[in-house]
Specification:
The chain is mainly beta. The chain has strands at residues 2-7, 10-16, 19-25, 32-40, 43-52, 65-67, 70-73, 80-81, 83-87, 97-101, 108-113, 124-130. It has one domain. The protein is globular, with a radius of gyration of 15 Å. The termini are close together.
Length: 131
């Protein structure tokens, strides 16, 4: 199974695997944010969230644990969605980064840096599974 990035309804890039990270820098606090997602039954299942600190618009979940400056938590109830829609904002200091993760080491295997689409005038992206 693959997770693909779509622009204007057309596949722009895909990553093979079942475990992925989506990361970015928060536009106001300039804080790093990482989410781990799993592909399951053609749906995206949120596994865990990591946020480097807290601040405006960044409220760690009540079950979050602070570890080496990162708040870390898993959803208390399953978060399962068919796709993720993202805006391309000039206010975000770093671009979105989508990485396929090794299921054992949870280290990035291959990544898509959304910066490669900057010069195409892209306003939004959609991430969803593809058979």
């Amino acid at each position: 199974m693959s997770l693909c990035l779509f622009i204007a309804g057309k596949s722009a890039a895909c990553l093979a695997g079942l475990l992925f990270s989506l990361s970015w820098t928060h536009s106001v606090e300039k804080t790093e944010w990482v989410e781990y997602w799993q592909l399951k039954d053609e749906q995206l299942l949120l596994k865990e969230t990591f946020v480097k600190g807290s601040g405006a618009g960044i409220d760690p979940a009540p079950n979050a644990v602070l570890d080496k400056g990162w708040y870390r938590w898993a959803p208390e109830s399953p978060v399962r969605i068919p796709a993720i829609s993202l805006a391309n904002s000039e206010l975000t200091p770093d671009n979105w980064m989508l990485c396929a993760l090794d299921p054992v080491s949870v280290k990035p295997v291959e990544c898509i840096d959304f910066a490669k689409f900057e010069d195409r005038g892209v306003e939004s992206f959609t991430i969803q599974s593809s058979k």
